[in-house]
Amino acid sequence: MPEVARHEPASALDGGADGLSAYRRIIADLPQLLAPHGVAVLELGQGQQAAVEALAKAAGLTPEACRADLGGVPRALVLRAA
Fold first, then answer.
1. Interatomic CA distance for residues 6 and 56, integer angstroms
2. DSSP code string of 23-65
């Protein structure tokens, strides 16, 4: 949307071919950045929950909850470190 593009850097809007590039980079680093049993919350785009959860599980993180926005779209994914 033009109003979003005017205020966000291009790198924040380009998720690669499948829209998950940034998640791959962030999730790869989370196990080293989080304290034991630490928590990270990632904002999701519409329809990304299952794919981001799969990436997190593959990295050894546990998806604990997902909160929806006011429209009912899963939007905030809570991940916990081992």
1. 31
2. HHHHHHHHHHHSPTT-EEEEE--TT-HHHHHHHHHHTT-EEEE
pLDDT in tens, 51-80: 999 999 999 999 999 999 999 999 999 999
Give the model's pLDDT for residue 59. Answer: 98
Best CATH choice for the domain 2-80 from the list 3.50.50.60, 3.30.360.10, 3.40.50.300, 3.40.50.150: 3.40.50.150
pTM score, whole prediction: 0.83
| Measured distance between the N- and C-terminal CA atoms of the chain, rounded to whole angstroms | 38
